[in-house]
Design a protein that fits this description.
2 domains; globular; about 425 residues; binds uridine-diphosphate-2(N-acetylglucosaminyl) butyric acid; UDP-n-acetylglucosamine1-carboxyvinyl-transferase, Chain; about 25% strand; alpha+beta; 4-stranded mixed sheet
């Protein structure tokens, strides 16, 4: 176990380059299983989640080589379609069902791990694969899938545009016999980048109106070289770090198209930004204003952005409100912020009776943040990936020293984060915890 020791209270300045997006790179590794030819990913992030996915692929029979920011992966033969002994877990293995069914007609992958931010069911994944012709058994350890006669095209309508279920259906449909229509699908930039990679591999995928995809199965996919898009979640974390500490940072390679909703929020709270060919520079010219924000599917305000934004809002003058509509339990981090001196209340029901997204099951979906608050360093334990980043940002804002334990969770999604933050002037040190 490792921890970060952080001395806060300094304005951070300079520039930081985005890594390739975790939530695209991991899916692209799984997509590579669809072909027996070599796939190259450039701008590949060396993070915990790609390591876990590499282990999955090696178990299946892939040859995986990572050199700098380049991954080469080739799966000439599926040597093992029953992958159970993984040393660590994330949410990726279920996406391998489609490619394994396409290659060998059967698959078994472990049940999912990942962040503890709500129940995170996979009913839409299972239903989509079954509609495409798979038979699936779910047991306490694994998902077991077979498709003796192969997968076939079908129409699938999602009741919610789930990112993972859409990816799962696309990965299964690209080599299924016939045509597939996906209705009310997710359109997140990482998913669209996966679609671009698959198109380069020979897939036939069209995007229609109203969140619809039209896919025509092809018998074979081939090699590809693809550059993973820059991580927009990192961009938001660094932008929030800038606004919370009051510095000025150029986030290299940040893409305006992926951040339109977030940039509006920056301006509304009194932050500023400049978009150039190099990236986006963020700063905070004046004091910050409070804001009401509700998370949504893309192109709305993403759920992964509410946690770093909450730290910024602890420094705004007035009461801000966040309504989380994607996950049932994503306000755990507010306890850490309150421990440092923030004034945040969370509610099951909104004080003004806004409709709840989830049924009453004891989950907190609304937060009210009363600012500005003086934050003071303290000890924190990382709860999950994004709230771990909250711990870091809050510690960098806070006066005095903080100790953040369990930083391996942060390493799952942020490459070499301590060294990169040092370049901005952050006082952060990695140490072993005992
Ligand atoms: N859902 C269902 N049934 C399903 C699938 C999803 O009810 O079959 C519900 C979930 O329980 C959740 C909501 O739908 O309440 C959203 O889930 P979705 O499937 O869209 O998300 P995901 O694929 O599990 C990905 C990212 C998340 C990101 C979300 C939303 C990956 C590995 N994870 O999760 O990222 O928050 O999309 O954009 O791509 C992170 O990077 O830290 C992270 C959590």
């Amino acid at each position: 176990m490792a921890k970060f020791l952080i001395r806060g209270g300094k304005k951070l300045e300079g520039e930081i380059r985005l890594s390739g997006a975790k939530n695209a790179a991991t899916k692209m590794m799984v997509a590579s299983l669809l072909t027996d030819e070599e796939c190259i990913l450039e701008n590949f992030p060396d993070i915990g989640d790609t390591e876990i996915t590499a282990e999955l692929c090696r178990n299946v029979g892939s040859e995986v080589n990572i050199s700098g920011q380049k991954l080469s992966i080739k799966t000439e033969k599926i040597k093992n379609s029953r992958v159970l002994q993984l040393s660590r877990k994330n949410r990726i293995p279920i996406l391998a069902l489609g490619p394994l069914l396409a290659r060998v007609g059967e698959a078994e992958v472990p049940i999912l791990g990942g962040d503890k931010i709500g129940p995170r069911p996979v009913d839409l994944h299972i239903k989509a694969l079954e509609t495409l012709g798979a038979e699936i058994k779910v047991n306490s350890e694994s998902y077991v899938a077979t498709a003796k006669n192969g997968l076939h095209g079908a129409e699938i309508k999602f009741y919610f545009p789930s990112v993972g279920a859409t990816e799962n259906a696309i990965l299964a449909a690209v080599m299924a016999k016939g045509k597939t229509v996906l209705k009310n699908a997710a359109l997140e930039p990482e998913l669209m980048d996966l679609v671009k990679m698959l198109q380069k591999m020979g897939a036939l995928i069209e995007l229609g109106a109203n969140r619809d995809f039209y896919i025509e199965g092809v018998p074979k996919l081939h090699s590809v070289s693809h550059r993973v898009l820059p991580d927009r979640n990192e961009a938001v974390s660094f932008a929030c770090l800038t606004m919370a500490t009051g510095g000025k940072i150029l986030v290299r390679e940040a893409i305006q198209d992926h951040l339109i909703t977030f940039l509006n929020v920056v301006r509304r709270i009194g932050g500023e930004y400049e978009v150039t060919s190099e990236g986006i520079t963020f700063w905070r010219p004046n004091s910050l204003k409070p804001l009401d924000v509700e998370t949504a599917v893309h192109p709305g305000f993403m759920t992964d952005w509410q946690q770093p934004l909450a730290v910024v809002l602890t420094q705004a003058h007035g009461i801000s409100k966040i309504h989380e509509t994607i996950y049932e339990d994503r306000f755990g981090y507010t306890k850490d912020l309150n421990l440092l001196g923030a004034k945040i209340k969370i509610f099951e029901d909104h004080p003004k009776n806004s409709p709840r997204k989830f049924d009453g099951n004891g989950s907190y979906q609304f937060a009210e943040i009363d600012g500005p608050a003086v934050l003071r360093g303290n000890k924190m334990q990382v709860r999950d990936l994004r709230s771990g980043m909250v711990n870091i940002i809050a510690a960098l804002v806070a006066e005095g020293e903080s100790e953040i334990d369990g930083v391996e969770e942060i390493d799952r999604g942020y490459e070499n984060i301590d060294e990169r933050l040092k370049e901005l002037g952050a006082e952060i040190r990695r140490a072993d915890s005992f």
